[in-house]
Amino acid sequence: MPKSELVENLDLDNYKYGFVDPESHVYRTKPGLDESIVREISRQKEEPDWMLKFRLKALRVYESKPMPTWGGDLSDLEATLKEIYFYVKPQEQTERSWEDVPDNIKNTFEKLGIPEAEQKALAGVGAQYESEMVYHSLKEEWSSKGVIFDSIEDGLKNHPEIFKEHFGTIIPIADNKFSALNAAVWSGGSFVYVPKGVHLETPLQAYFRVNQERMGQFERTLIIVDEGARAHYIEGCTAPVYSTDSFHSGVIEIVVKKNARFRYTTIQNWSNNMYNLVTQRAVVQENATMEWLDGNLGSKLTMKYPSCYLMGRGAHGSIMSIAYAGSGQHQDTGGKVVHAAENTTSSIISKSISKEDGRSSYRGLCKVLEGATGSRSNVECDALLINETSRTDTYPYIEVDEKCATVGHEATVSKVGDEQLFYLKNRGLSEEEAMALVVRGFLEPIAKELPLEYAVELNRLIELEMEGSVG
Amino acid sequence: MSNAPALEIQGLSAKVANEDTSILKDLDLVVEPGQIHAIMGPNGSGKSTLAKVLSGHPSYQVTSGEVLYLGQSILDLEPDERALAGIFMAFQYPVEIPGVSIANFLRTALQARLGHGEELDLFDFQDQLLEAMELLEVEPSFAERPVNDGFSGGEKKRNEILQMAVLRPSLAIMDETDSGLDIDALQVVSKGVNSLHKQNPEMTILLITHYQRILDYIKPDLVHVMVDGKIVRTGGPELALELEKQGYADWKISS
Ligand SMILES: Nc1ncnc2c1ncn2[C@@H]1O[C@H](COP(=O)(O)OP(=O)(O)OP(=O)(O)O)[C@@H](O)[C@H]1O
Ligand SMILES: [Mg+2]
To answer: CATH number, domain at B98?
Structure first.
């Protein structure tokens, strides 16, 4: 069978998280957004006055900023945003015990394998359903050492000082239109604090589910890793398949203090009707290390560029990403690093796969400020195109204001070669198996960094996607 | 079927697909099960093309003739179906598969040979792989390297025979496995092939080469000379020695 025919027959109906559960909420705002909705969200959360002011200010900034004209196609988004629900409250409070989560919501997460995940090697688990964290728990072993792993709302209530010290400082309201939107209507997300010197040996995991049709999810996460501490946070997301569009716009703020080490892993597997516009940024202090591991497999359009601000000397930032753009998908992803101190180092490795009319774009910024002597940065982006109509673009921006710095950039575009396929078939692999093997090999350098379940999940996805019309 | 030759090529003509360039021209060849036949011939005479046509490479189109493998026509089979039927080609130019370890690759290839729902026994697989690696005198870490990626020319050739040792074909087509191997490696690889042949005397080998040397180690039953897309002469092992001295000048003039 010719390759083009095979590729045309790869179908995308394999999304196994696309099931819809009955609607369930105790409260939701009317569709669309105005000041009354922002006030209502704040009132529902019984927030201090400063937070309401922060939200209202953010709403004005959001309204004043134009839609971005770069990145993906946002032309239908304005209309979508008039129709979606900005706040849907699934239950009254965040439960600490899985038993107390309402049955219907529990069922959803059980179908997604979430409580099972907790049994496995995790330090803590959070689960967000629509706009709120319905469940959050941390193993006693870690809470007794002073680790905090809460919903963001509980973080604000229970730890107001440290919360206020950092909230909105890493990603200011006006950073971009969608960070402003998130600042106005944020709801849900995690608050994490890892005390000095504490090494969390197993990851914290948060899982995000959107069930409601025409839903907007705006989680906000704040993570503070204190001096010499170590931790790993994993985020996963899925949603049902609807014919209407949904919207997800998170803001993730992270501080990695002196000598600390932190990794943030995302496996985004939203359904293909989701706009996913996320702002993620880490401030990295002296000799600290921040690693973003970013897997973008789902969504209609993702625009997401995890960033590291290397503020202390010797700080290191690493951004590794995988993007998969199947039919009708656009993954506009990449990374951003700012070298603001001496001897800071960074590396960006980005791998993308485009299939059918899928489009992946790498968009990256590497900035070395004057005085950041001895800094080094290396960017490598590789794109794999599965067939003729697949598309990839690279937009690397490099700004170096320091003479004593080294910045490298390498980009490759490849196709699954006919000779590769023939070689593999000569060993007995079918066309699909051969394709899947080449694709897996391409992703291997990053896939091997993923937590095991996610690596397995990624393999499963690749196999399904490469399944052709044989028979 | 038991009396059928391992390979019977009748009047085979083939050309480059979508082009007029014909490469194989009315070629005949019969190889009995368990036999080793060497094919020699000048550059560009069509030896690799023959190997690829037998393996079902999509770049070539058979314009006439027939290829019977154990009495059955294989021309309508896909390359992977031929492989599952027991046909293996050691490539003249092995292909790189970055990020896929040899072990993983071979495991996938063996799994593909099992029926639906059957799972490869991983312990058996480990044993098979280790045995093959010992046979070809490679370090155990070799199997963890990505297939041919960053390999030296000789390592690539050795890897081809390693795969052959694990996959156990019944018809092995070795396309210039000797070129690129140093003298010691040539001995190791030849010894490996001989040992596989001894373990499975039914294994048929078509050995394409330019040099008589490998035939000192792997003794052919017959030697064929291929010029301009067809077999122009067949003889015993002594034919290779003769070619080594005289080259192909005679045929080149006449063709
Ligand atoms: N895909 C192709 N497209 C065009 N010409 C081809 C193609 N494949 C083979 N040929 C031509 O067919 C002829 C035979 O090539 P082939 O590789 O089979 O030769 P060979 O006998 O294996 O040579 P060598 O000893 O150099 O390996 C050559 O002239 C070659 O250029
Ligand atoms: Mg050749």
So the answer is: 3.40.50.300
